[in-house]
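Deliverable D5.2: sample structural annotation.
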Amino acid sequence: MKTTIQNILGYSREFWRHWVTLVVLFLGVNLANQLIFIPIFRLITTYVLQAGGIPFISSQNIRFLFTHHPLVILSLLGELIVLLLVIYWQFAFLLLGLKMVSTQDFNWRELVKESWNRIKTVRLGSLPMMLLYFILVIPFADLVFRTPLLAKVKIPEFILDYMTRSGSLLTTLIIFYVVIGILGVRLILTLPLMIFRNQHTRIAMANSWRLTGKGKWWNYLKQLIVLAVITVILLTIIYALVYGLQLLLDLLPKQIAFVSAVINLTGMQALSGLGIIWSGIIGLQIVLASLKELSSNNKAKKSGGRKWIIFSTLMILLGGVAVINNYYYLKVTVKRPITISHRGVSEGNEVQNTIPAMKRTQKLRPTYVEIDVHETKDHQFIVMHDENLKKLTGVDKKPHDLTLRQLKQLTAHENGYHAKLVSLDQYMSAAEKLHQRLLIEVKTTPADSKKMLQRFNQQYGERIINNHDQVQSLDYRVVSRLKRLNPRLTILYIQPYNLTYPRSMADGYAMEYSTLNFEFIQQAHQQHNLVYSWTVNEPDLMNRLMYDEVDGLITDNLAELNSTINNYTKTKSYANKILNYILAISVGNQFEL
């Protein structure tokens, strides 16, 4: 441990010798991502899908795309190739820049030339292996190699939730993470070997595996863990000092407290950003040490005027944007988001999708209670989430295998409670008596009848409108067909991933929170679309999504959500607003390569 800390301190001294150049290098790549590459790739994807008349990409339509829209598939594959090359160029740009800094031979023009030359050496046949490497390995080596271009390469939380429902699935998930984690460390030298020594992907992976063998991988992992702990401690100290200082300044007259809050929040962002850049650079130095690609002569060159000009320009631009954003954030009253009880329960207070659960949950005053409906064998609608009844009722049947009368005789068991299954008619009647609005998710299966949506609209369309209820579905065919049948219905399209700019017939989107971001929310708002996020159960996540101005939060923990919203929206002191910002913004997402 002592040797590890000494190594980190040694790398840190090198960082501070050249910190201006390294900050400019890191921020330059980050700004290129945020202002150029991400918007361009999003626009291209959106345009390609619009040109093909395709509102979305999912498992529902991927086969159809291959058989009926080959040009769209080819265009998206071409975009993927370009994306891989851009990611590779960015890592080459940073690693080569770091090497130039360490050898006291830094030159911007030469760096651009050298990083471009690395792109030209990439063979087309190496791209599939490179794609596999980026998808499986890079996200698990996030402390060293991070880029927002790979931010969506993650397992969505709803899948993780499913994988923790049984011991066997949880064991599989743990084994998966352990295997991928080990692979991430064993193959961590792949990118440096490709960039510094022009090795092809397969050869670089083999050499990385060899160089990290015989326990050497543990040395890397140990140093990176210690670095992560030190980074968290440093950031925590920064956050605590700024928050404590603002608590004192809030005792001063309001205008002085406000100005100091803007300054403190901006300074905190600058310091924490610098700390994250430091952590990223130290992580790279740890990885590259064994390759001996970085070597300093310990003679600090006199700082050139050009880098200071670039640095000052970046700081003025970023500082100006930060001050404006912080002024707006600290000045404006936060809008209270819509609260939605997932499957009608809160804190496991009853059996999901049942009337007793709704009656208990309604006391917490959710804006909407979210429920799920399936078509039955006799073309009616039962309130039920799962496609198989066994988990809740013990009956190994699907909803469409039984009539509504048969289903209503079944008793569901969950959370130590039991309750009868109910029809959509029964549930809506109970909700109407309580004046409780509903968010109704229409589930679909291959066994559904052809006129299911027509019957749904005929039976419930006007009732849903009169009750100010809403409809949502993971199946875009439900969204488009119901919207054509009844344009007055408010219908949301459920999306597990955020891949493109929002473009569809839907009135809004319910998106799994993992990849939902401020940009998507703002784009949706410009089109007067709602954005809900699911399933949001942790206070820090609730804070982040409120900071991103999401319209509604779907949760299993409604009491926790109500408390968090009250703390977030009703705060009076600027110190607490700064605390909200700290809780809302994930450390790892503030500054990425």
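Annotation notes: Residues 122 and 310 are 31 Å apart (CA to CA). Residues 587-593 have pLDDT under 50 and may be disordered.
The annotation will be released with the project's public dataset once the embargo ends.
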